[in-house]
Design brief:
Largest sheet: 4 strands, antiparallel
Helix content: 55-70%
Strand content: 5-15%
Radius of gyration: 19 Å
Distance between the termini: 30 Å
Number of helices: 8
Structural class: alpha+beta
Number of strands: 4
Shape: globular
Length: 236
């Protein structure tokens, strides 16, 4: 096993740990996997003039498969794909009653997307359920209802999406100090988009804006602004 293979094997083991029922263990494992993956990607970009890892769409392992995929989930998937040098694609029409949201890119980057997507979506769902339950108890109700929950999720996802894109901008800005690394990573990123132009017919698949509860959206946005993505994870 080569040193690179050992790194990838370690990352995959950490991804498995990130699915732990123990939140602290899952967060720590995911953060460690992200650090290893970022370091490995930079090292590979610096050392390899040609990146020979296969680029494809991982259609058999979609991020989502459902009759309808909520726009907030599509926003998170799109941001994570961009952050990890991939593309997030949603099928234009349902097949067998289901639409798919899949990732196109290298296998190693795809696995980072899956781990981060699973963590973030589960966290937003948990925060929404907890907030709905708390407010419901105050109002002597069982919960705040589907519209309120979806509005909260949209607000949280909007903030998380903005933070992810800012993180990507900051990361690339830091790497710009080393022209060789910056150029190599740009080539690596562009390779996926070039592959998509040659192999896929893509278009904007976002639907109409959802009907939202303004207060729930604002509360969700507040939670999305402070929920852990990496910072608190890395200190665990």
């Amino acid at each position: 096993m080569t040193p690179a293979d050992k790194v990838i094997d370690r990352i995959r083991k950490l991804f498995r740990l990130s699915q732990s029922d123990n939140p602290a263990e899952a967060a720590t494992a995911l953060a460690h996997a992200q650090r290893l993956m970022a370091s490995h990607r930079i090292e590979q970009a610096q050392l390899d003039a040609v990146d020979d890892e296969e680029i494809k769409i991982w259609n058999d392992e979609p991020l989502e498969s459902a009759p309808a995929i909520a726009p907030w989930r599509q926003a998170i998937g799109g941001a994570l794909a961009e952050l990890n040098d991939c593309l997030c694609l949603v099928t234009d029409k349902p097949m067998n009653g289901h639409r798919k949201m899949a990732v196109a890119g290298r296998r190693s980057d795809f696995e980072v997307c899956v781990a981060m997507y699973t963590w973030i979506v589960a966290t937003i769902d948990r925060l929404a359920a907890n907030a709905s339950s708390r407010l419901g108890r105050r109002m002597k109700r069982s919960g705040m209802g589907r519209r309120w929950l979806n509005s909260f999720r949209h607000g949280a996802a909007a903030e998380v999406e903005a933070r992810l894109y800012q993180e990507d901008t900051d990361r690339r800005g830091q790497l710009a100090a080393d022209p060789n690394t910056s150029e190599a990573l740009a080539v690596r990123h562009d390779a996926v988009h070039d592959w998509a132009k040659d192999n896929l017919e893509t278009r904007d698949s976002r639907g109409r804006s959802p009907d939202v509860d303004p207060e729930a959206f604002r509360l969700g946005a507040l939670m999305g602004r402070v929920m852990p993505l990496k910072e608190r994870d890395e200190s665990g």
